Amino acid sequence: MKTLSVNKLVSAGCKVKIWIADWFAFLNDKMGGDLDKIQTVGLYLIEIWKAAGMDLEGGQVEFLWSSKEINSRAHEHWPLVMDVAMRNKLPRITRCCQIMGRKEQDGLTAAQIFYPCMQFADIFFLKADICHLGMDQRKVNVLAREYCDAIKRKNKPIILSHHMLLGLLKGQEKMSKSNPASAIFMEDEEI
Q1: Are the CB atoms for 140 and 99 separated by under 8 Å?
Q2: H or E element that contains 125
């Protein structure tokens, strides 16, 4: 889905920044919190997008690593994170936790509460005019648009949400790589 959408955006003349969210995977304890493994998976995903036909000719698509970009411009990123955290109550932030595959009532770590604030800040940090994310990310996108109202910013980011692929198991809203029986993987053989 991402490849199809990115190719449409590129053909329409858009410059696309794909955020390899290594720090976010770390906060969400993916790969056991091993940043080296997380970054290896990020490199793998880039190769998957290439293999799936993402249009990388002409330099219209750029891959950015959250750890590198945030470290290099921390003075821009962290004030945004703190501002959204100060402007929102905890229940509002926990409603955004579905972006991590979590539910509001799940026992969340402090890092996982921090995650939506960081993802929100990324929209403004990257100076994104269009936010292209899955439907599971829409609550953070709505938070970003509400923030524009609060700070009286006229140019709100446009939200371009794509549907998630349904899981293969009964009742699943989306595929889950955590359960191999519920998903189709790029390495799977054609049936």
Answers
A1: yes
A2: helix 110-125
State how far the alpha carbon of 77 is from the alpha carbons of 22, 81, 111, 169, 185, in Å. 16, 7, 16, 39, 34
Based on the fold, state whether residues 115 and 135 are members of the same structural domain: yes
pLDDT of residue 185: 77
In a domain, 187, yes or no: no
Does residue 186 lie in a domain region?
no
pLDDT along the chain (191 residues), means of 10: 89 95 88 94 92 92 96 96 91 75 65 84 92 82 88 88 80 76 79 70
Residue 34 lies in a domain: yes
pLDDT (0 to 100) of residue 39: 96
* Residue-level pLDDT at 182: 82
d(CA 33, CA 43): 17
Using only C-alpha atoms, the chain has a radius of gyration, in whole angstroms, of 17
Q: Copy the structure tokens of residue 102.
A: 């979590």
Task: Read off the pTM.
Answer: 0.82
- The residue among 155, 119, 154, 124 whose CA lies nearest residue 138 is 119
Between CA 141 and CA 158 the distance in angstroms is: 9
Q: Which domain holds residue 125?
A: 73-177
Domain boundary among 29, 50, 71: 71
